[in-house]
Amino acid sequence: xxxxxxxxxxxxxxxxxxxxxxxxxxxxxxxxxxxxxxxxxxxxxxxxxxxxxxxxxxxxxxxxxxxxxxxxxxxxxxxxxxxxxxxxxxxxxxxxxxxxxxxxxxxxxxxxxxxxxxxxxxxxxxxxxxxxxxxxxxxxxxxxxxxxxxxxxxxxxxxxxxxxxxxxxxxxxxxxxxxxxxxxxxxxxxxxxxxxxxxxxxxxxxxxxxxxxxxxxxxxxxxxxxxxxxxxxxxxxxxxxxxxxxxxxxxxxxxxxxxxxxxxxxxxxxxxxxxxxxxxxxxxxxxxxxxxxxxxxxxxxxxxxxxxxxxxxxxxxxxxxxxxxxxxxxxxxxxxxxxxxxxxxxxxxxxxxxxxxxxxxxxxxxxx
Length: 368
What we know:
Layout: E1 2-7, H1 15-27, E2 31-37, E3 53-57, H2 65-78, E4 83-88, H3 95-103, E5 107-112, H4 122-142, E6 145-148, H5 151-158, H6 160-165, E7 169-170, H7 177-180, H8 184-193, E8 201-206, H9 215-227, E9 232-237, H10 243-252, E10 259-263, H11 268-274, E11 277-280, H12 289-296, E12 301-304, E13 317-320, H13 326-334, H14 341-350, H15 355-366
Parallel strand pairs: 1-2, 1-4, 2-3, 4-5, 5-6, 6-7, 8-9, 8-11, 9-10, 11-12, 12-13
């Protein structure tokens, strides 16, 4: 049985955690996974009871590099890993490569999940960006199996020059299609649970409440719809550092009664059935798994033009400039049709984004 050490997952649930854990769940019968977490509490660790999935805790590289190196060394010397699977959006941490190559014979898998990275502090961002480009040569030299979630994420992480001479494997951000596919019965049930009648336009956003996701833009759009007589409601599923700021902003816009901040939810698949439009005005993304989920539910999606066209796997995604005003966004929202949700939903599976197919593809790429 292959043993795989997994690095790069946050202790809090997000898009990267969703796709990586979904793959792990489907490979855990044949492989053993040790998942590195920091010493902080985890929001999802206790949900996984599989005997072949274990969470191990060491200090973070960002907080204490020496302690991180020692903790990683202890893991590598205690267990004979076949692979170390590094999930990242930036090459700032080259320490992990040096330690892995020094203390094990494991093959290194790198999996790029982003087209940039989040950091609000200008100085820290400048330093991390410098490390990203400085460390590229080491990554290029020591990586055995380079993977990505999209062309844009590959170009950002590996660089176009590297890609011309190397195979970079495309691992789709798959979803549990049967869980998300459009179901009119769930739509009726959830709209009833949320006290939403069929005449209400339901906007949905799911993601961490953070600057890069640009949730303020969604609140501005909602205000425009409401003040122009549209019967609309916004559902926001997710947690994050901007929660209180966004609640206060909704109050400032006098739209608090038209917004439901739902927090972290385990039923996003059902919320997508209840919604009419999915919104993602992000400043940047790699290949957001929420877009695949929304398309699986047959939801029309309106997203920032900053995002890669690769995410439009069903031809139901519209791209609009992030600088366009709320009126332009609102017109696009009102132009959507919900008549073809079943057809749109089926295209996700046919395009290879079912997590069963994605996990099998990953298995084949790394030759498990």
